[in-house]
Each structure stands twice: as structure tokens, then as C-alpha cells.
Specification:
The chain has about 400 residues and is α/β, with parallel strands linked by helices. The protein has twelve helices and 16 strands. The chain is globular.
């Protein structure tokens, strides 16, 4: 989440601590409340959908009961609006007493009892985007508090902070969290605010202090929003690919499948592209009321396997012909001649008309193993076909949709 509000000038001494927490060796997966539930604090009139311990327990229950946890979705993430408007007399953050009557530690205990992990939200500035107490001036005490509550992920926003000082502020907070008594995945919005201010983020530095980082605008529940994020990633893809890897990932924001603004084909395109870009898969929807086709989409084992591939290489767009784009991501296993396998996404930006028939000569997109490939569609993995680099792969893709083909090097 990011509201571009006024900031106050902040300054803290800079300390060099390289992030070394052993977390996010593959992109984190889970559920995040913001896009679907935003800052709904009206528990009197909307008790099932307000930001409260009930909401996060409900979603944890669904992750387990409906099979998401078994596929890797393990984080339940609180976003903004969870706290009181003032810290306590000792300077510690206080969860809203009515909406979180048992406190965050009790909620963490419940989440952990389900075999899941709990994430929470703060801000690098003096206030959060919704006006609650920020962490500026309280980095050490907040890091210790989150560790005491047994939090597993911390998302740090950038409202009410000067983007020019984020190169100092985020490393200091990261160091405080990394020195706490608990391993906490550190999620930044550092580059988002800097690019919005016309600055050029230093992604190599950011990767030293953040496990994941938001690069661009908040996703909202519309196809136009998804396209704008994809375009930004294409424009910066070489820099983003160079910064990504095990323990440090670009974050294009939440998965929206199952909400109101995307058709099934559009949701499919987002999920496939986020997977090939090695992005966090943090869904923001109502798992208590999601249609089966969307649930099946985000539970597709073949797509998740691409996203979680142990090589940790981010994919990118490798070919474009009009409104048809070809994306490719190197994945395991390596063939006997040391060549990568690949996940190939064919993305159709056309918004009207019938499905497009796309032909791809494999060696034109970098697939050059002399031992050929075993290929299959991630929605029909039982149908395997052999293709060699000089062969032409043919794929049919609906408008505003995508298809993913796996090409495994033969051993």
C-alpha cells in the first residue's frame, strides 16, 4: 500500500548491515489483506470484513482447510489500520483494543498453531499511510516488539518520509529487525517512493537490506492497473532481473484472482506473469467466498512450481510481435548438456476478437539445447510433446489472457 501524502524530513545515522537472514529463498506465498479489505475498521456494521483478528483467523482457517497451505501459501499478512492512534507510555505500539482484543501475540499463536506464519505492517516515516503511528524514531523498540509478538514478516511502507533519505532509513530499520531475537522477512517499499519522486533506486543496495521490495504503484482491482505494472517491469526488466534472486525479490504487488475487477482470463494472465517474474504470490481476496475457477487457478501446482523454482532466476519478455508478447524464465532441471529448462508465457494484449494462434520457433527465444525439450501446457501437464530448438511451438491464447508452456531439457 502507498499513499503519496506529505512527508516530514527525517534523518538517522547510517549503519551498514548486509541482510543475512536466510529467508525468502524462493518468493514468499500467502495472503495479504490490503487490496480486498483496505482500511475497513467498521466492525460494528461490517464485522466479517473489518480489519480485526477475526478476519485473519478466518483466512488462516481457509488456507489450511482448502489446501492452500499444502501448496506453499504460508503467510497471513496484516496491513495498515491494525493499531491504536497512540503508542503506550513506554513508546510501544498497541493493537486496536476492540478489533484485536487478545493482542497480536495471541493472534500469532493461533496462526502458528495452523502451521502458518504471521506478517504485520509498519511505515518508515512518522505515520503510516492511514495516519497511525509510524516507526521513525522507534526502529529498535518496534523491531523488538514484533519479535516479542513472534511476527514472521514485516512490511514497511514509506508514507510521511522523504524518499531522498530512504537510502539511510531502510537500512537502519532492516538492521534493527535483523538483530532482533526472531527471523523476520523484511518487505520494503523503498524503490516505489523513490521512482515516484523521480529518483533512480539503487536495486543492488536495496537487495542487501530487503527480502522483497515494491517497485511501482499499488495494484488496484482493474485490468488497466495490471497492465501498467507489467509495462513498468518490461521497461526496467534488465535491472530487475539483475537484482532478483534467492533471498531478494522484486514485488509487483498482490494477486487479485477472485475479486471483482478481473475476468478469469485476466486473472490467469496476472498469475502466469507473476510466476514467470519470480514474484511473491500474496493473494488479496476473500478466500471464504471465491469461485472455483479462481481457486483452481491459484492452486495450480505447475504454475506454483515455476514461481518457486530453486534456481531463483527471474524471467522477462524476450520477444514481441504487435500485441503478442513472449516471456521466458530459466528453470530447473538442467539438461545433460547443462542447458536450462524454461517456463514460456505467451501473453495476448488484444482486448477483442477471437483467440490468437501464436507460433514460436524455440531457438528464437533462447531455447538451444541440442537434446530437445519435453513440453507441456501447465493446465494439461499429462500431454507431453517433444520439441527441438528448430521446431515451431504453436499456442492458442485468448484476448487479455496468457498461456504457459513448460519446456524441460532432456537428460
Amino acid at each position: 500500500m502507498a499513499f503519496f501524502t506529505a512527508f516530514v524530513v527525517l534523518a538517522l545515522p547510517f549503519s551498514v548491515f548486509a541482510l543475512d537472514n536466510g529467508l525468502a529463498l524462493t518468493p514468499p506465498m500467502g495472503w495479504l489483506s490490503w487490496e480486498r479489505f483496505t482500511c475497513n475498521t467498521d466492525c460494528k456494521n461490517d464485522p466479517a470484513n473489518c480489519i480485526s483478528e477475526r478476519l485473519y483467523k478466518d483466512m488462516a482457517d481457509r488456507l489450511v482447510a482448502d489446501g492452500y497451505k499444502d501448496l506453499g501459501y504460508e503467510y497471513i499478512n496484516i496491513d495498515d489500520c491494525w493499531m491504536e492512534k497512540e503508542r503506550d507510555k513506554d513508546g510501544k505500539l498497541v493493537p486496536d483494543r476492540e478489533r484485536f482484543p487478545n493482542g497480536i501475540k495471541a493472534l500469532a499463536d493461533y496462526i502458528h498453531s495452523k502451521g502458518l506464519k504471521l506478517g504485520i505492517y509498519q511505515d518508515i516515516g512518522s505515520k503510516t499511510c492511514a495516519g497511525f503511528p509510524g516507526s521513525y524514531g522507534h526502529f529498535e523498540i518496534d523491531a523488538a516488539t514484533f519479535a516479542e509478538w513472534e511476527v514472521d514478516m514485516l512490511k514497511v511502507d514509506g508514507c510521511y518520509a522523504d524518499p531522498k533519505q530512504m537510502d539511510d532509513l531502510y537500512p537502519v530499520f532492516s538492521a534493527a529487525v535483523n538483530k532482533s531475537s526472531r527471523d523476520i522477512l523484511f518487505s520494503c517499499e523503498w524503490p516505489l517512493y523513490q521512482q515516484a519522486a523521480g529518483m533512480k533506486p539503487d536495486y543492488q543496495k536495496i537487495a542487501k537490506y530487503c527480502n522483497i521490495w515494491r517497485n511501482f504503484n499499488d495494484v488496484v482491482d482493474s485490468w488497466q492497473s495490471i497492465l501498467s505494472i507489467i509495462d513498468y517491469y518490461i521497461h526496467n526488466q534488465d535491472e530487475f532481473v539483475a537484482a532478483a534472486g534467492p533471498g531478494h525479490w522484486n514485488d509487483p504487488d498482490m494477486i487479485l484472482a477472485g475479486n471483482f475487477g478481473l475476468s478469469y482470463d485476466e486473472a490467469k494472465a496476472q498469475f502466469l506473469l507473476w510466476a514467470v517474474m519470480a514474484s511473491p504470490l500474496l493473494v488479496s481476496n476473500d478466500l471464504r467466498d471465491i469461485r472455483k475457477e479462481f481457486s483452481d487457478l491459484i492452486k495450480n501446482k505447475e504454475i506454483i512450481a515455476v514461481n518457486q523454482d530453486s534456481l531463483g532466476k527471474m524471467g522477462k519478455m524476450v520477444q514481441k510481435n504487435g500485441n503478442i508478447e513472449i516471456w521466458a524464465r530459466p528453470i530447473s532441471p538442467l539438461s545433460k548438456d547443462g542447458k536450462y529448462s524454461y517456463a514460456i508465457v505467451v501473453f495476448n494484449r488484444n482486448i477483442i476478437g477471437s483467440a490468437s494462434n501464436v507460433s514460436i520457433q524455440l531457438n528464437s527465444i533462447g531455447l538451444d539445447s541440442p537434446n530437445c525439450y519435453s513440453t507441456y501446457d501447465v493446465f494439461k501437464p499429462e500431454i507431453v510433446t517433444k520439441y527441438c530448438p528448430q521446431d515451431t511451438l504453436k499456442v492458442q491464447v485468448n484476448p487479455s489472457s496468457a498461456s504457459m508452456i513448460i519446456a524441460k531439457g532432456q537428460k
